[in-house]
Design brief:
5-stranded antiparallel β-sheet; 11 helices; alpha+beta; Beta-Lactamase; single chain; binds magnesium ion; binds adenosine-5'-triphosphate
Length: about 500
């Protein structure tokens, strides 16, 4: 269980780190890796070189201090025994002149008295006792820490200790300076390597991210439905393969889109043909009813009247009158039917007049209160296909209100603006859930949608059970000629 908890903790930690690293862009990642590596290697190399140098230089100074001290001891033997202190002093001075890093040299006689030294004024207190050597020792060295840096102090017995001790101190200041100089050089090299690394990384990320960014842009274009663009193949590597795959995908999508557009065009042609054929058929039947059936019934009316005139029997007259009444009703019904099929007023007087008459018919037929407003429509004619579509839409919408809504009031608004025309048909009836509509068996609302789409319009249904229904249908209108001319002249 403990192992499981550790694993969970680790994975949470890993995902937290990845969340941070994953959020930065590729350029920052590569630059970060390069800079991190260069800095790490620079610092590691500097530390290692410093340690090595420090050790080597310390050893070297130590060996030289032993050598110089032994040399002084050897050459001082006679001078000490002969008590030639002046020569002894000169020996120390010469030794100092020959070794620039020699801080001091002095000789102690067998009684422990300092008989010669290189300190101009006073001899530093405590230096004499800081190091010593016994007679049978070869030498003894200690590292002294002074105000002016570390010193390798070496004591060598003179004449096996019988003539005293020779002491020299070699300064390690030069070692510090060398280490500082080498460190500085290494830092400069690190900075230069970092600069070169950044340049190389920037170039690499540019090479890497350029095609990727291009692919991102193209993917956005594809998401917006533009399948025409193709990515340029930059190199023969994995990104090149990705580019090829992307282009193949775009091509396939473009092909699918072309086929879809073709199918859509065929479908809309088909629907247009059906609607046109339906309108033509309705027109033909309406004309037939008017020209032939109505004429025949009117002749029948006239015939019945002359029959009544020719006979005196009141009973027969009454029967003929009844028959005339029936024929009159049938004639009225026929007129209403013919108007509904194809109101000639739509062709002759336009949409506003046709809608007014249709709404009036509906009021009479259903007893509903129907408000009608047509702002901006006046008596101007619209495109005939658009007028037919709007008429049929209002017709279907009001038929639905009468058939399904159980409403008390309805309203029809047809609003014409410069660039669009909108029909709003509203009722305060029972409402319904538009999402639950299936295509089967319900041709009315689907027909409205189809008609709208054919003329680049669209339908919005707002309805909910118990809250009435509102249909919005909107069609774009072509720009008026003056406006087109203005745009044209501006373009030039
Ligand atoms: N104004 C409305 N109020 C309430 N319900 C409505 C209204 N308009 C449509 N509906 C509901 O939506 C359904 C679909 O209407 P649609 O006009 O598409 O088909 P339909 O009227 O049933 O048949 P038809 O194909 O003869 O028009 C209707 O059956 C009805 O339930
Ligand atoms: Mg309907």
């Amino acid at each position: 269980m403990n192992a499981g908890a550790t694993k969970q903790h680790l994975s949470r930690w890993t995902s937290a780190v990845w969340n941070v690293i994953g959020a930065v862009n590729i350029r920052a990642k590569i630059l970060g890796i390069v800079l991190g590596l260069v800095a790490l290697m620079g610092v590691a190399a500097t530390i290692e070189v410093r340690l090595l140098l420090e050790q080597t230089l310390t050893n070297q100074t130590y060996e030289r201090s032993v050598a110089v001290a032994r040399d002084v001891a050897a050459r001082a033997t006679d001078l000490v025994l002969m008590r030639d202190y002046y020569e002894l002093f000169r020996l120390l001075r010469d030794t100092q002149a020959n070794n620039p890093d020699l801080r001091y040299a002095f000789v102690i006689d067998s009684d422990g008295t300092i008989i010669a030294h290189t300190f101009g004024s006073g001899f530093p207190v405590g230096l004499r006792d800081a190091n010593t050597v016994t007679a049978h020792e070869h030498h003894r060295s200690v590292l002294l820490t002074t105000d002016e840096g570390d010193v390798w102090d070496t004591a060598v017995p003179i004449f096996d200790g019988r003539a005293g001790i020779a002491r020299v101190g070699l300064s390690l200041v030069a070692r510090e300076q060398t280490i500082a100089a080498v460190t500085g050089q290494l830092l400069i090299t690190t900075i230069m390597a970092a600069a070169m690394g950044i340049t190389a990384a920037a170039l690499l990320t540019w090479i890497l991210t350029r095609p990727i960014l291009q692919l991102v842009e193209l993917a956005k274009a594809v998401a917006n439905g533009d399948f025409s663009q193709r990515a340029r193949r930059w190199a023969n590597d994995e990104i090149g393969a990705l580019t090829d795959a992307f282009n193949t995908m775009s091509e396939a999508l473009a092909q699918v889109e072309r086929e879809r557009a073709e199918r859509e065009q065929m479908r809309s042609q088909y629907v247009t043909q059906i609607i046109t054929a339906q309108e033509e058929e309705r027109k033909r039947i309406a004309r037939e009813l008017h020209d032939s059936t109505s004429q025949a019934l009117t002749s029948l009316l006239v015939g019945l009247r002359s029959l009544a005139d020719r006979h005196r029997s009141p009973e027969l007259k009454q029967q003929v009158e009844d028959l005339r009444g029936i024929v009159g009703h049938v004639l009225n019904d026929l007129h209403t039917l013919a108007r509904q099929l194809r109101p000639s007023v739509l062709d002759d007087l336009g949409l506003a007049a046709a809608i007014q008459r249709y709404v009036a018919d509906c009021r009479t037929r259903s007893g509903l209160t129907i408000d009608l407003a047509m702002p901006g429509l006046n008596n101007e004619r619209l495109d005939s296909a658009l007028e037919t579509a709007l008429y049929r839409i209002v017709q279907e919408a009001l038929t639905n209100v009468i058939r399904h809504a159980h409403a008390t009031t309805a309203s029809v608004v047809i609003e014409r603006r410069t660039d669009r025309v909108r029909a709003i048909i509203e009722d305060d009836g029972c409402g319904f859930d538009p999402a639950s509509l299936s295509g089967d068996g319900h041709l009315g609302l689907n027909g409205i949608r189809e008609r709208a789409a054919l003329l680049n319009g669209h339908l919005i249904i707002e309805s909910a059970p118990g809250h009435g229904t509102t249909l919005y249908v909107e069609f774009p209108l072509p720009a008026p000629p003056e406006e087109r001319y203005e745009q044209h002249s501006v373009g030039r």
